[in-house]
Design a protein that fits this description.
Length: about 325
């Protein structure tokens, strides 16, 4: 593997990894309040495909008429990205190939050795070349955003299961990774409250566990100085201290004066992007919204991952099966 620097021309790339409804939009807004940090949040998702005519930037304007995105298209072309399709940036490693090949390529096999073997077997079929192109274009887009915002660190908050591994392998610089984790009970309650899914709570809890286990597995392959875990609850209880730790980790001045949250920020992602927080409050509605037996079932379904990430919580109470 070719050795790559952690920064190029003084610029760096930080990946914010998390399961859905874990606070990544909140943390993205907070990190981008630093004058030397920038983000557009989720760069690999295709949420806008099919609705680009009505899709709004976090600033409130339609994305297609927001001057930032018009300027970004021009700057990205100058950076060698090619034509930037606002509906789909084509920066997902899981879509570097189409059809059955994509499903094979993107699936987590749980063991790094198995995944490396899988990648080696797929390489002759053009997968490695396609992924390398995604890495190069990801860095080109990051630089275009940094050009426009006069920042030196780009934050990518994409929701892609194996993105850490492939950024590490194909990005022209070595990424830093922040693993943001939220109590599984809060994630499940938020998912249900928003009405996006009606799956059994056990299924939602197991998805949380699989996602965070995959993130932890990939992060373990990185040097200690390029990985940081932040818990949503700790962030909300100590915003200043947590952000200073994150900024120091990212290589920017932790004591810098921060800008108001949401000021001149242009972010993609879910509906949360349209309501920049004016203050930070810990959301633990699950404590009253979830009956005790449901909360216990969620914890059991999320073991042993929950116990590893929240060891102070202890063992879940006995009760109904974790297959709830």
């Amino acid at each position: 593997m070719i050795d790559r620097p952690e920064t190029a021309a003084g610029r760096g790339y930080t990946f914010l990894a998390s399961s859905p409804y874990s606070g990544s939009t909140l943390l993205s807004f907070l990190l981008a309040s630093h004058p030397n940090v920038t983000t557009i949040s989720d760069v690999s998702g295709r949420r806008r495909a099919g609705q680009i005519d009505t899709f709004r930037c976090s600033c409130g304007r339609l994305m297609q008429s927001c001057p930032f995105w018009s300027d970004l298209r021009e700057r990205a072309a100058d950076r060698g990205f090619g034509e930037l399709d606002l509906a789909d940036f084509r920066l997902g490693f899981d879509t570097a190939q189409r059809g059955p090949m994509a499903a094979i390529q993107a699936r987590s096999l749980r063991w790094p050795v198995a995944e490396r073997l899988r990648d080696r077997m797929l390489a002759p079929l053009g997968v490695a070349s396609a992924m390398r192109d995604v890495g190069v274009r990801s860095w080109a887009l990051a630089n275009a955003v940094m050009d426009l915002t006069q920042a030196d660190v780009f934050v990518d908050a994409s929701k892609e299961r194996l993105r850490i591994r492939y950024l590490e392998r194909y990005l022209p610089v070595r990424p830093r990774v922040i693993h943001l984790v939220r109590d599984v009970r809060g994630v499940v309650e938020s998912t249900l409250r928003r009405g996006k899914r009606d799956d059994p709570i056990g299924k939602l809890a197991r998805e949380w566990a699989r996602t965070n286990a995959s993130i932890e597995q990939q992060v373990r392959e990185l040097p200690a100085d390029r990985q940081l875990r932040i818990r949503y609850e700790d962030l909300c209880r100590d915003v200043t201290g947590t952000l200073r730790r994150a900024f120091a980790f990212m290589g920017v001045d932790p004591e810098a004066e921060l800008q108001p949250i949401g000021q001149e920020q242009h972010m993609l992602g879910n509906q949360m992007r349209l309501s920049a927080p004016t203050d930070v409050r810990l959301d633990e509605r699950w404590r009253t919204a979830l009956p005790t037996d449901q909360a216990g079932a969620i914890l059991r379904a999320a073991q042993p991952v929950f116990g590893q990430l929240y060891p102070e919580e202890g063992a879940p109470p006995a009760g109904s099966s974790s297959r709830a």
